[in-house]
User: Fold this.
Amino acid sequence: MKLNKVIIAPDSFKGALSANQVADIIAEEVNAEFPGCTVIKMPIADGGEGSTDTILAAMGGKKYTAQALSPDDRHIAASFGIAADGTAILEMAQSSGLTMQSGMHPMTASTFGFGQLILAALDRGARDFILCIGGSATTDGGGGMAAALGVRFLDRTGSSFVPCGGTLVKISRIDVGDIDGRIRESRFTVMCDVDNPLFGENGAAYVYAPQKGAKPEQVLALDKGLRHLGKTLFDQFGTDFSGVPGAGAAGGLGAGCMAFLNANLMSGSEAILNLCGFEKHLPGTDLIITGEGKLDAQSFYGKVLSGILSRAPHVPVCSICGVCDCDEGFLKGRNINIFEASEGVSMEESMKNPVKYLRIAAGKAMKMYSQKYRV
Assistant:
């Protein structure tokens, strides 16, 4: 039996390698072991960092830069994409992500800069938007974004303010009358990398705010603010956004996008698999190779691997990851071959030399498959 066709569809190794780099390295090892094999490189993202590059690679287009406020209120240059068909691709992490701030600011970090990026894309004529909302530093329910677009948040005295996580409880009324008129002319699709509700034990504050620097008492305060925002949105718009899967993504930005942009939420990995024409390339495929920095239980629920498994249940899958954090019992029966770039070395060492150790892992994988698929 011969290995004739392989799809290489990895996510990025966050902090180490882009999805494009991962796909290139794995492709080289496939070609070295199986000359003449058809290799389809399909870098994937899930709505987090690297999504803009992945989507532009699939759709064509170019990047632009705009001035925006960081989560900690500094002026920064943030990039966004405009695809060949005019669709704007915006990563909130470029303006309001964890890496865009100095230190941690769980109570005050704002999505205002993300709203400014939307305005910049509108100014370039975009009316179709793909919003990628992974990697946030914020828990403001999208209040900052909405304020940048002209929405007014009023407290009990009638004074307007730009809400952040720590001040969501102050919102008494929301005035959308002055929102930029181009918003109503536009269509927004939000790519989420998680499906959490807005609040509660599985919500934005409890699950993700600790990663953004929140102490236990701050988590409680942030969750209270998100509950208040959810009730206020329901009272004002007559729709309960809080329980929609993905409402809690990016510190509640998912709910904010639904409320203020009339956005549709969808799984980021599913959206990019669609854009890349994954099903179109499946016929005749002998093996799918995917990968990510950390393979864990979440990889099987809403991430790139889960999307691949659901769409190609009968094609063998190999995951080449930085590290695997799944126990053998969990993996048993899932029929996936896993190779770790960090095998035999520390995580620090593998992160310092990611190309070297990914190449070693990919080489081991191909040697194993060469025993099955004789050229």
Summary: The mean pLDDT is 92. The CA atoms of residues 293 and 322 lie 4 Å apart. The chain has 14 helices and 16 strands.
